[in-house]
Amino acid sequence: MKKISIILISAIALWAMVSCNKNESTKVELKNFDDSLSYAVGISLYDIYIGNQLNKSTDSTIVLNGFADKMNGKEMLTSEQEEEIINKYFTKRQEEQQKEQAKQFEITKAEGEDFLAENAKRPEVKTTDSGLQYEVITEGKGKKPTETDVVKVHYKGTLIDGTTFDSSYDRGEPAEFPLNGVIRGWTEGLQLMSEGSKYKLYIPYQLGYGERGAGGTIKPYSALIFEVELLEIKQ
Questions:
Q1: How confident is the model over 121-172, as pLDDT tens digits?
Q2: Catalytic: which of 89, 105, 115, 165?
Q3: Is residue 81 part of a domain?
Q4: Does 91 fall in a domain?
Q5: Cα separation of 116 and 127, whole Å?
Q6: In the annotation, is 165 catalytic?
Q7: 136 shares a domain with 61
Q8: Taking 60 as the threshold, does the pLDDT of residue 5 lie above it?
Q9: Domain finish residue from 76, 109, 139
Q10: Which residues form the domain of 56?
Q11: One of 209, 221, 225, 233 is an active-site residue; which one?
Q12: Quick check: 105 and 221 in contact, CB under 8 A?
């Protein structure tokens, strides 16, 4: 933490001096690699330690005074106090980000629930006891898989706004997997299908990726839609 504090102080000082003289900045020429490296370091220090974190919370004049006092051995805070204050700032900032994230998750959850509630009113949509919704596009005549079977399928997965996040069709190759190794909505939904069937599955977040989401596209609490074509059951 001490090393981080020193880097922060150096970066803050650099930012303060620039911000205090932003209308009087000296033009420099990047004549060689070392000049370019020096300039890039200055930009990076601002971007990493200042631009996105402290810019709205600090006073450049006080920052510069703190830097000068440190250099002259006249600082008004001990190193422990300095570390405590900086840690307190970042803790507060993290809490604010978590609150904002939780608010966004609540919106995603509500949107999914509203979508499924409306979707359930459609006569072609059936709802199981678990909350899974499905729509028969094509009904096959083959056998149905069990939970321990391996299935071969073509599928496309989308969010409720239509965004595609995965598609075996786009890859040009069907997928194979054991039914007990996928999300609960798939495990349940595929067992309703016969070989040759094509269904549309509407999966609430509890039967999908839950409160954690998956990757950058599927947010926590996301309801999902899958078009699934059961090509073959492999024992």
A1: 999 999 999 999 999 999 999 999 999 999 999 999 999 999 999 999 999 9
A2: 165
A3: no
A4: no
A5: 10
A6: yes
A7: no
A8: no
A9: 76
A10: 2-22+29-76
A11: 209
A12: yes
User: In terms of domains, do 129 and 203 share one?
Assistant: yes
Half-sphere exposure of 170 (CA within 13 A, CB side): 7
pLDDT at 41 > cutoff 80: no
Query: 226 catalytic, yes or no?
Result: yes
Tell me how far apart the alpha carbons of residues 218 and 216 are, in angstroms, rounded to a whole number: 6
**How far apart (Å, rounded) are the C-alpha atoms in residues 196 and 3?**
63
pLDDT in tens, 74-126: 777 777 887 887 788 778 888 887 778 778 889 999 999 999 999 999 999 99
Q: Which one is catalytic: 46, 67, 155, 202?
A: 155
Report d(CA 209, CA 199) in Å as an integer: 20
pTM of the model as a whole: 0.64
Which H or E element spans position 133? strand 133-138
pLDDT mean across residues, the chain: 82
What is the per-residue pLDDT for 153? 97
Q: Reply yes or no on whether 46 is catalytic.
A: no
**Catalytic position from the list 9, 86, 160, 183:** 183
Number of domains the chain contains: 2
Active site residue 155: yes
Asked if residue 26 has pLDDT above 80, the reply is no
Known catalytic membership, residue 85: no
